[in-house]
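Thread: Modeling a multi-component assembly for a lab meeting

Hi all, long-time lurker, first post. My supervisor asked me to bring a structural picture of a complex we are working on to next week's group meeting, and I have zero experience with this. I have the sequence lines for every component (538 residues in total). Could someone generate the structure of the whole assembly? Inputs are pasted exactly as I received them:
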Amino acid sequence: MAVSDTQAVAATGRSGGLAVPSPLVILKKYYSVLLLIIVWEVVARLNLVTPFLLPSVSSILKGVYKATLEADLIRDTALTTYRALLSFCVALVIAVPIGISMARIRVIHWFFDPIVSIGFPTPKISFLPIFILWFGLFDRPKIFLATLACTFPIVTATYLGTMGVDKYLLWSARNMGTSENSLLRKVIFPATLPQVLNGAQIAMPISIIVVIVSEMLMGGGGLGNYIMVAQRFADSVSVFAGLLVISVLGYLLQKILEKVRALVLHWHEETQHESK
Amino acid sequence: MENICAIRNLTKVFFVERTGEYVHALDRIDLDLNRSEFLILLGPSGCGKSTLLFMLSGLDHPTSGEITFTEKSHDNKRLTCTVFQEYALFPWRTVIDNVAFGPEMRRVRKRARYREAERYIELVNLTGFETRFPNELSGGMRQRVALARALANDPEVILFDEPLAALDAQTRRVLQTELVSIWSKTKKTFVYVTHSLEEAVLLGERIVLMSSRPGRVKEIIDIADIPRPRSTTNEREVKVLAMLAEHIAAEVDKSMRREREL
Ligand SMILES: Nc1ncnc2c1ncn2[C@@H]1O[C@H](COP(=O)(O)OP(=O)(O)OP(=O)(O)O)[C@@H](O)[C@H]1O
Ligand SMILES: [Mg+2]
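Re: Modeling a multi-component assembly
Sure thing. I ran the full set together rather than chain by chain. Output:
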């Protein structure tokens, strides 16, 4: 064993686990958000604007707490989470095979490529009226619409990922007698996974946005609906409470996805650098 | 000397769609591979060395002419495996799972293929690194993994396409020595493309000199009788080096002159 080899390995080390950061680290990372909250609280307390236009942060937190006791907010949060996650997962299941086969099969590329290039930039929310006609009023149109919206970024990312699979990997695998089926499962899919997860990270917020906007526009429960109802009753504390929950929800889902990515791609160079 | 592969009258012409031109890469190559030999392919850049390896590996087909192996390939027998300069390891697989890839494709049971992989990992001096991922290894170590992975398929011939070109001089030296030792231990046929004259002299038994494009076999130099370990400062080696240098210079000169004419 050459000395330089051993040193290189010692310097690289193994990737760390998913450690919980200390409060100080959190403070350092999010101080701008904290600062904003403090300024907000001070402005609200000084009565520079009426509480109706800008309720204090503490009263919003109290509002969240009270609404939680009434189980309203919890039900709506659960409903929105369910819709957003289901749409996201269905989109993954649909989009990944489409993306991979677009890159591998000419006919499929020929069929989907124009659909993707026209469909991607179209704001999917504009399909809402049609989806209501087709699928009714409650869960289905919202979930279908969010699924549709999530499909595009995942298809595109998967397609590009599959196209970009290192040709030497394919050559090596073929040279070792890999069947086309194994090539797909054991080489192309894992090689494309980082890109698929990039697409997923773009799709997740889209899913939440589409679900909430359609809840705002058509009711049927959920956080978007919660805010609209509160606004109708001039309950600005509840409006802000709903907003707070939405942003926390979005943040949490994104964080969870990041963790999943780090777990799945523990072999990936990028993940290993991040964890250092 | 047992012949294991005959290349006859092999010609390869590429059609470049973008420009609509034909590229004459290889021209009427005749070459025999002997069992357990260390064959070097040497020639100026673009003379078709990689293309020839590709034809041998079956990943591409000749325009005309043929390649005949005496053994027949089937599901459990690989005729060739390739070690690329780019390593081409599967980054999501650990060292041992990379090495066990070939056996896995042949549906060898997990226990058996790990035992097999372990043997080759030991042969390339990587014991203790089985559970590492490729990006946790240095370039030299990655190339050892690639070699072990090729060996684990037990192919007739191992093809090398400038495998050490991306490594630093010191690591390259170490690996050259190890390659020779692995070659003599495994008795495999090595077909080895290199740019380096020193490498050709240090490693090879026969050196195939190729002309610049279209690639032809210009001369085959037999240096099997130069004793090992070799050194670039011994008298015999120095002589061969000078001869190779002369040939390469002439070929490069020729191709440059031709380019000027175009
Ligand atoms: N797929 C291809 N399509 C068109 N032309 C090709 C293709 N592959 C190789 N060529 C051309 O064939 C010739 C031989 O290429 P090859 O890569 O075999 O050369 P080489 O001897 O390996 O060169 P180097 O030493 O630079 O690696 C080159 O002129 C190259 O441009
Ligand atoms: Mg080459």
